[in-house]
Write a structure and sequence with these properties.
The complex is a heterodimer. In chain A, the strands form 2 sheets. A 5-stranded mixed sheet of chain A has the order 3-2-1-4-5. In chain A, 42% of the residues lie in helices and 21% in strands. Chain A is globular, with a radius of gyration of 18 Å. Chain A is an alpha/beta fold. In chain A, a hairpin with a 3-residue loop joins β1 and β2. Chain A folds into 2 domains: 107 residues, Nucleotidyltransferase, domain 5 (2-Layer Sandwich); 144 residues, Nucleotidyltransferase, domain 5. By secondary structure, chain B is an alpha/beta fold. Chain B folds into 2 domains: 124 residues, 2-Layer Sandwich (Nucleotidyltransferase, domain 5); 144 residues, ATPase, nucleotide binding domain (Nucleotidyltransferase, domain 5), CATH 3.30.420. In chain B, the strands form 2 sheets. A 6-stranded mixed sheet of chain B has the order 1-4-3-2-5-6. A 4-stranded mixed sheet of chain B has the order 9-8-7-10, sandwiched between helices. In chain B, β3 and β4 form a beta hairpin. In chain B, α2 crosses α8 and α6 crosses α7. Chain B starts with 13 loop residues before the first strand and ends with a helix. The chains are: A alpha/beta, B alpha/beta.
């Protein structure tokens, strides 16, 4: 049986095609200003590249902030549930999930079967989300990829006073003026996001193993800051940005039965 | 990314002095320097009357910003720093005013300055600054009785407005008027965070909204944010708004509409309220010092 999951994120749309629990294809597209059209294009690409016949897909489930705008779906599921399902599908022992996307950060406590016990979300403020790191990398005039790597070169802790991304940008500029090395600024920024996330996750309780998913997991600087903040190592799966879409595809499979 | 290199957020800096006054005959020349997170002001008062002031952007170095603001206020007045009897520093960078005799919080200074600018009947002062927003209660002497502030988040601050001016390529001084030029009031921007509000504004523009309409939606969201701060402290008449945003008619009009109250207007520049208060404190402190010496 083939099912599909579409994760309509704030910044990117992700599609996962699943056959009997094995991923057949995946694709990602910028959400842009026309999410429905982007989702269609992304879906096309996923099926084409994996040679999956569209008519053989029995159930499509959408998730993510824009899940109601997803085209041709059979059902939808919240981001939190989808992420939990996706994580358990990949890594059985995980009990705490940290999901950091472009505009949201989440801490999710789960049971062995992927059932959500409790969760906390920050969706009101860019502090503690990918958008924060992106804004700061722009202020430093480095790419976001470079920004994450830069952070690892630093061994210095500079506390960031500002919580707000807009104010932090001025703070970064002041640090640049004060001739602070870029890698130290990068680490300071990642520490700030991580500390915000850690205090949020503490609210739901941290139980091992801890998985880190969502697009920001690709940022090694953030991962390093998070490990230091949590005082433990988080597990990052392969394709961490697809976990929500994968979870939606798993749910689609359950619903099709 | 915008291809524009023009900085629409950059407001004009200026200085002024009263040519009809002769500071040389004065008994007390006092000064107040307000080094804020975004702008810095220096005010020179002659026997408690406003004589000269300047308003400029704060640079990366607070002592340097304080010195610059002061020397600009004194430009063409014939006065130098040595002629000033007493200086009080205030604002975010108040401890970094190298030539100040004392530092006093900006909250106390805004209340004191507001008392002169709007008269002794003013009870609630809303200071909408560059990186924070404060609701202050004060008595008839301009003494603070209570206050609340937001300094954690750019929503409801001048910096947030600057970001929007830049995004929409509308000069910051025109944002307010422009936002009022809409046929019908749009719903306010729903995101609190300025970063998210920016994405929201981009999609509204994409949907075909005019810049004016987007600005209206943002000014309205900002007014709403501030009203909740005022509601928490409790609104007491008379009411006045100080700081840079007080010059934005788009926010002020909507704020007054939502509160159903008209704010007091002043002949003084709303951005120098803190520095005026500091200069008034400086005068009092100088007089106290003299009395002590006389004893």
């Amino acid at each position: 049986m083939i099912t599909a999951g579409i994760d309509m994120g704030a910044k990117y749309i992700k599609v996962v095609l699943l056959k009997d629990g094995v991923v057949q294809g995946r694709a990602i597209a910028a959400t842009g200003f026309e999410p429905t059209a982007s989702a269609l294009e992304c879906f096309e690409r996923a099926t084409k590249e994996s040679s999956v016949d569209k008519s053989s897909i029995v159930h499509i489930t959408s998730t993510g902030a824009g899940r109601k705008a997803a085209p041709n779906v059979d059902s939808d599921i919240t981001d939190v549930s989808a992420t939990a399902k996706g994580v358990v599908h990949l890594m059985k022992g995980v009990r705490t999930v940290i999901d950091v996307g472009a505009e949201e950060g989440r801490g999710i406590k789960i049971e062995a079967d992927g059932k959500v016990v409790d969760f906390a979300v920050n969706e009101k403020c860019a502090a503690g989300a990918g958008a924060f790191a992106e804004a700061m990398s722009r202020a430093l005039e480095v790419s976001i990829g470079e920004f994450g790597q830069l952070s690892l070169k630093s061994e210095k802790t500079i506390p960031m006073n500002a919580q707000c991304a807009v104010f932090a940008e001025s703070e970064v500029v002041s640090l640049v003026h004060a001739k602070t090395p870029k890698h130290d600024i990068a680490r300071s920024v990642h520490d700030a996001i991580a500390s915000r996330i850690v205090s949020m996750v503490r609210r739901v309780g941290i139980e091992k193993e801890v998985a880190l998913v969502g697009g920001v997991s690709h940022n090694p600087g953030f991962e390093d800051s998070l490990n230091r903040g949590l005082e433990m190592q988080v597990i990052v799966p392969e394709y961490p940005e697809y976990v929500g879409a994968l979870g939606a595809a798993v749910v689609a499979c359950e619903r099709a039965k | 990314m915008s291809e524009n290199t023009k900085e629409f957020w950059r407001w004009k800096e200026y200085n002024w002095h009263d040519e009809t006054m002769d500071p040389k005959v004065a008994e007390t020349i006092s000064a107040g320097v307000d080094v804020g997170s975004v702008s810095s002001q220096a005010v020179v008062m002659v026997d408690g009357r406003l004589y000269a002031y300047s308003n400029m952007r704060t640079g990366s170095d607070s002592p340097d910003s304080a010195r610059k603001a002061m020397s600009w206020a004194l430009e063409n007045t014939g006065l130098t720093l040595d002629n000033i009897h007493y200086t009080v520093g205030t604002g975010y960078g108040r401890v970094n005013v190298p030539f100040a005799d004392r530092a006093i919080t900006e909250i106390a200074c805004h209340a004191r300055g507001g008392n002169l600018m709007y008269g002794p009947t003013v009870r609630t002062i809303l200071d909408m600054g560059g990186q924070d927003c404060k609701a202050i209660h004060c008595d008839e002497k301009g003494k603070v009785t209570n206050f609340l502030m937001n300094d954690k988040c750019a929503a409801g601050t001048g910096r947030g407005m600057e970001v929007f001016a830049d995004l929409l390529a509308v000069p910051i001084e025109e944002v307010g008027e422009s936002s009022l030029d809409v046929e019908e009031e749009p719903p306010p921007v729903s995101s609190t965070c300025v970063v998210f509000a920016k994405s929201e504004a981009s999609s509204l523009l994409r949907e075909g909204w005019s810049k004016k309409r987007v600005l209206a939606a943002y000014c309205s969201a900002m007014a709403h944010r501030v009203v909740s701060l005022l509601e928490r402290i409790g609104m007491e008449k008379d009411f006045a708004i100080t700081g840079g945003i007080a010059k934005n008619a788009g926010v002020v009009t909507r704020l007054e509409r939502e509160l159903d109250i008209t704010s007091l207007k002043s002949k003084y520049d709303t951005q120098i309220a803190g520095a005026i208060g500091a200069a008034l404190f400086a005068k009092t402190l100088m007089e106290k010092q003299r009395k002590k010496v006389a004893k």
